[in-house]
Amino acid sequence: MKKITFFLFLFASIIANAQTFTLKGKVVDENNEPLPGATILVKENKLGTSTDFDGVFNVKLPKGNYTIQVSFIGYKRISKEISLTKNDEITFSLVSEDNVLDEVLVSAVRVNADAPVTHSNLTKEEIEKRNLGQDIPILMNYLPNVVSSSDAGAGIGYTYIRVRGSDASRVNVTVNGIPYNDAESQGTFWVNMGDFASSTQSLQLQRGVGTSTNGSGAFGASLNILTDAISEEANGEISNSFGSFGTRKHTVKFSTGKVNEHFEFAGRLSNIYSDGYVDRAFTDLKSYFLQGSYTDENTLIKALVFGGKEHTYQAWFGLTPAELAADRRQNPYTYDNESDNYQQDHYQLHWNEKINNNWSTNIGLNYTRGKGYFEQFKGSRDAADYNNLIVDGSDVIVDRWLDNHFYVANFNADYKGDNFDIISGVSYSNYKNDHYGEVIWGSDLAANTNIRDRYYESNSKKTDFSIFSKATFNVSEKMKAYVDLQYRTVNYKTAGLTSDRDPINVDKEYNFFNPKLGFTYKINDENSLYASYARANREPNRNDFEGGNSKHESLDDYEFGWRLKNDNVKLNTNVYYMNYQNQLILTGAIDPNTGEPLRASSGNSYRLGLEIDADIKITDQLSMRPNIAISKNINKDFNAKIDGVLQNLGDTPITFSPDIVFGNALVYQPTDNFQIAFLSKFVDKQFMSNFDSKVSTLDILEDFFTSDLNVVYEIETEKIFKSIVLTGMVNNIFNKEYVDRGYYYTYDDTWSVANQTTTIDGAGYYPQATRNFLVGVTLKF
User: Fold this and answer.
1) I need a labelling partner for 235 at 20 to 30 A (CA). Which of 20, 93, 531, 532 fits?
2) Measured distance CA(444)–CA(361) in Å, rounded
3) Which pLDDT does position 73 carry in this prediction?
4) Burial class (CB in 10 A: 0-12, 13-18, 19+), 672
5) What's the CATH number of domain 2-93, 3.30.70.3270, 3.30.1360.180, 2.60.40.10, 3.40.1010.20?
6) In this structure, what are the phi and psi dihedrals at residue 368, rounded to the nearest 5 degrees?
7) Using H for helix, E for strand and C for coil, what is the string for 522-547?
8) H runs (alpha helix) in 299-391
9) What is the pLDDT of residues 407-465, one digit of tens each?
């Protein structure tokens, strides 16, 4: 009888211990508002999930002791130890993190996980895994509907990003809410911010028009970057990486941690160098980042100084088809200093104040100083092209200068009620730029010419004022509404001569009203739907004015999406329709003097697409993160001159807009400190003109499929270092020879005999690197 009782007791114990219980939890902020999209991690078995629309999550676990870790962008990560012996409930209350520019600034430029805006996030941890010297556009390459490229082919130096087929001049970039796009060209030049990924806390890419943001309007996407967080404890890092094409990166970081519970000082120094995949297309980037901060219970004040100096050899003119076939790594330029030289320094001050449980405010001030030149050799030139400073037929070397100042002032206020959140703000910026060119050498200078005499000059000024108010409120228990209204006024003036010595005289003012409206509907704990409409207007850039185009462009963006979240799958699906009026599309050609892409009005055009991205847990150690974008990008009734005759080509594809973009990350993580990721990217064929190959097939870029392998291993140590992180990256592991970007040009030529006009065409291509590697070691103190 005792034996039977013993075995019954043992059997009952086994059953009890094998039993599975449900842990239900809720994640809220300091005001007891739910935080949808918060990340939940059970550390013992690496089981992960996220909170739903109401900040609620559920996990099923066997009986036992667990550590539950909860994190959410803008809030301090917390962990709790629990002993699970029955179905249980727990609440996590997260507090705003001093460590980031607090929630009023985050809310002013970003959206929450449940907002009716199509977006993706990258955290510092995700960026660090591949941060071996390549620029931010390359690190973003595997986000949905993103295509990145570089002039030198290795992802360092002049790098570019396109989102939904829209180039970088149409992607609005802010750093801590401060506009970063160049005010005149509207482009983003990452070469001036070497190793900025090492000072990035997180970034959010909003595709389409997105939410109201400061600076020029978003016509393809907006990218919002937050810089390094404040560290509670003193720490340091020494990071070194090396790789193919003479690539090397050296970074030193430090933080004093909180001193006297209020003050912190931190900084970074970096140097990145690469010879480039293309011959002599070297890049030498020196950069720094310094921040001082003060925090108390209700105040965060941050002063930041960051910038960089770059020296980059010319690779922006690409290769002709014949040059590409002969030697895809060649560089046709032979002058030793055919290079770009530029320094840019940013000074920011941010004051964030929590007035009470309802009100908080943010003031942001910025001054950016930029100055530099491009040096170029020109053979056998006409004197008139250089203000008669040379004799006809002389060789000449010139420096073309930009000398600019950029001032920004932002103010935001956030009011949170029981069922609504209203954020309002104003932004003002003032940009001044001097354009001029100097003759620094000539084989036969004209009489009375001095070295560094100017052969062209113009001065520019641009002011930008915007005011916005956006509100999120609960319509019902299951529906949230979002309203965003922005008024923006822009004035641009410039006078003088362009680098081609053509006169330019502009004094234009634009006034824009940009409304946005959206709804999110919670179907159940796992599923939600969203729909939105956004209107955007955008002024021309300097190149457009030079080409005689002063009309603004407009966009109506319609988005409809479905989000699914459970313990094993996170799925985002959305359909978009972007209807443009007077879209200034890339013609495919570039400015032969500067490499800037040229644009022209397409009349009416549209982009219609489906985007799907997912995070699928296959096992506790293996996950898959695929994304795909399928789209049609069409100019309606496009007119172009071919063989001297204006023709209606009907509906034609928009330049550089592939129909399919696919990416995937297969991630294996057997332990917390070891990860292997196999990354793949497919980009469908693209057209480099808007002619639909009616003139020549030279305008087609073939599709390509590439794969990368990323390995990260962290060794925890007990002496000297906190840990040693070993990182390896093999790019283009299957050694694919491909071209991901180029340009196409045409001009009409009259035959001397028949007196007939024919269209002459040509193309240039930017070959990207074949198989190459990067390895790095980071010592953490």
Assistant:
1) 93
2) 62
3) 64
4) exposed
5) 2.60.40.10
6) -120, 130
7) ECCCCEEEEEEEEEEEECCCHHHHHC
8) 321-326
9) 999 999 999 888 889 999 999 999 999 999 999 999 999 999 999 999 999 999 999 99
Q: Given this model, what pLDDT does residue 499 score? A: 93
* Structure token digits, residue 231: 């560290």
Q: Which two tokens stand for residue 140?
A: 């973003």
Write the single-letter amino acid at 160.
Y
> What is the CA angle 448-451-455, rounded to 5?
80
Q: Which two tokens stand for residue 154?
A: 């290795």
Reduced to 3 states (helix: H, G, I; strand: E, B; else coil), residue 109 is helix
What DSSP line would sit under 309-324, residue for residue? EEEEE--TT-B-HHHH
Torsion angles phi and psi, residue 10, rounded to 5: -65, -45
Burial string for 256-279 (b: 16+ CB within 10 Å, else e) reads bebeeeeebebbbebbbbbbbbbb
Of 132, 249, 250, 151, nearest to 774 (Cα)? 132
Q: 777 forms bridges with which residues in the sheet?
A: 240, 726
In contact, 576 and 557? CB cutoff 8 Å: yes
CB 21 within 8 A of CB 63: yes
Q: Phi and psi for 305 in degrees, rounded to 5?
A: -135, 125
> Hey, what amino acid is at 499?
S
Region(s) of the chain under CATH 2.60.40.10: 2-93
Phi-psi label, residue 626: left if phi above 0, alpha if psi -120 to 50, beta otherwise:
beta
The span from the CA of 367 to the CA of 90, in Å, is 47
Superfamily of 226-780 according to CATH: TonB-dependent receptor, beta-barrel domain (2.40.170.20)
C-alpha–C-alpha distance, residues 243 and 156, integer Å: 12
CATH 2.40.170.20, the chain: domain bounds: 226-780
Contact 221, 204 (CB under 8 A): no
Question: How far apart (Å, rounded) are the C-alpha atoms in residues 229 and 253?
Answer: 13
- Residue 384 has phi, psi (to 5 degrees) of -60, -25
Do you know the residue count of the chain? Answer: 781
User: What distance, in Å, lies between the first and last C-alpha atoms of the chain?
Assistant: 63
Judged on CB neighbours under 10 Å (0-12, 13-18, 19+), 553 is buried
Nearest to 485 by CA among 499, 504, 471: 471
Residues of the chain with pLDDT under 70: 1-18, 31, 46, 73-74, 96-107, 748-759
Q: Pairing state of beta strands 527-538 and 20-28?
A: unpaired
Q: Look up residue 155 and give its DSSP letter.
A: S
Give the rounded distance of the alpha carbon of 733 from its chain centre.
24
Quick count: other Cβ atoms within 10 Å of Cβ 450?
A: 8
- Tell me whether residue 682 is exposed, middle or buried, using C-beta atoms within 10 angstroms of its C-beta: 0 to 12, 13 to 18, 19 or more: middle
**Token representation of residue 230:** 């404040």
Alpha-carbon distance 535 to 580, whole Å?
A: 10
Model pLDDT for residues 14-41, shown as the tens digit of each residue? 444 457 888 888 998 876 778 887 888 8
- For residue 426, report the phi and psi dihedrals to the nearest 5 degrees: -130, 150
Tell me how far apart the alpha carbons of residues 477 and 482 are, in angstroms, rounded to a whole number: 15
The identity of residue 304, as a single letter, is: L
Residue 178 CB contacts under 8 Å (≥ 6 apart), including other chains: 214, 346, 348, 364, 366, 408, 410
Among candidates 538, 535, 549, which has minimal Cα distance to 601? 549
pTM of the full structure: 0.88
User: What is the reported pLDDT for 756?
Assistant: 60
Question: What is the predicted pLDDT for the residue at 757?
Answer: 64
pLDDT at 96: 63
Angle (CA) 46 50 51, round 5° = 145
Q: Residue 448: left (phi > 0), alpha (psi -120 to 50), or beta?
A: left
Contacts of 40 (CB under 8 A, 6+ apart): 25, 27, 48, 49, 50, 51, 57, 59, 68, 69, 70
Q: Is 662 helix (H, G, I), strand (E, B) or coil?
A: strand
